Amino acid sequence: MEALPARARGYVAAVSLLAALCVLPVPRTHAPWWAIALLAAVYASCEHLVRHRFGGTFYPVLLAGAFLLPPPAAALVPLPAALLCRVEQRPAAARRLWRAARPSLAVWGAGAVHWLLGGRDAVVACAFPDALLPAGAAVLVFCLVLSLLDGGILAVTEHVPLRRSWRGLLARSLAPVAVHGLAGLMMAVLWRSPYGPVAALLVLLPMCVSWWAFAQYHRERAAHQATIRALVQAVDIKDGYTRGHSERVGQASVLIARELGMDDARVETLRFAGILHDVGKLGVPTRLLRKDGPLTPEERRIIELHPEYGHEMVRGISFLGEARAAILHHHERLDGSGYPYGLAGTQIPECARVVAVADAFDAMTSTRSYSRARPVEVAVTELERCAGTQFDPAMVAALARAVRAYGWHPTVTADEPTPATTSADRIPSTRTAP
């Protein structure tokens, strides 16, 4: 992004001003400058290592600062790392200010709550479990401030409605930040113990090892996702009429899964299922996929083999889980007249019933060689008409509710006028790219 919208710049300026007001009282706190400098240096080192080697953010040092220092002093700890870091995207100044102000406000809020609940005295006295309650409240406030700020920047930069921009941010951050908070509390207690700051810093060693293992897992997952994207792009190239169809089906599947209240892991699985549902077309002759006229019965039988081809292609990708069943059964019909096995009702896996609705919805709302795109409301009405015979009524109702509430504005990298290979950096919420 070469430029930020004016309202985004205003938002960053307001957050930065608020952070500056939080750190102004530092001289009156009589906080030890050597402690602030040491924590800031350790945080800058950890942040550089984690961000550039592993990816992500490292919060234990920030939370240790919130538990050890007065709130204005604790808010100084993240500033050097953010202000001195290299920024790849423009505008660099605004992004640097955002990276500084965001954690600074979160640490100030966490420190203020910890201080008010008597957490500092509990840390000095090494009193357990008395120290856990203030620390837990501080972690909660830390997550809450970060979620509020992140939701705000999402709303002003990507025009996401406010009621959706904060959805899920707090819930997703609580568990990992709680682990960081526990490490930060251990650092603070050791810092105040007779063993001093050196012993406190040793807490970071197992955290770094666990972070490395976590990063390795994510690298492996990224490699799997790159493989999936390559397969999808191969299908898009082979069947040009359905370019972008796989990604849109993945996004529609996510809409349905979220509306049904599925957990994040299943939502991700349904996304992969939608993205890969047509991968078996790689085994179908190109001339059949691109044929303009009607198919003969023999040609139709060949095309109807693509779910089985796709299942064979992905059966070795273990992390796909139930998505493999969706790829195999997404053309089954509720009345048993579908293919490849003629399953009926609840014999059809739930994930396949989700993808079937998403697939049909995108087929109707996209222009093909043999049909023009229908309006979204017309497509939803047609799905509702076929509910109970071809489609699962619960899945159709979920898609109808989601589309009527949020609209249908898919972001598809394959639709962009670029060469055969395209990529997506990050698309949040239902606009996630594989």
UniProtKB/TrEMBL annotation:
The keyword Transmembrane applies. It comes from the Bacteria. InterPro entries: Cyclic_di-GMP/3'3'-cGAMP_PDE, HD/PDEase_dom, HD_domain, HD_GYP_dom, HDIG_dom. Residues 220-415 form the HD-GYP domain. The keyword Membrane applies. Residues 242-364 form the HD domain. Keywords: Membrane, Transmembrane, Transmembrane helix. Residues 419-434 have a biased composition (Polar residues). The chain crosses the membrane at residues 6-26, 62-85, 97-117, 137-157, 169-191, 197-215. PROSITE patterns: HD (PS51831), HD_GYP (PS51832). Residues 411-434 are annotated as: Disordered. This is HD-GYP domain-containing protein. It comes from Streptomyces pyxinicus.
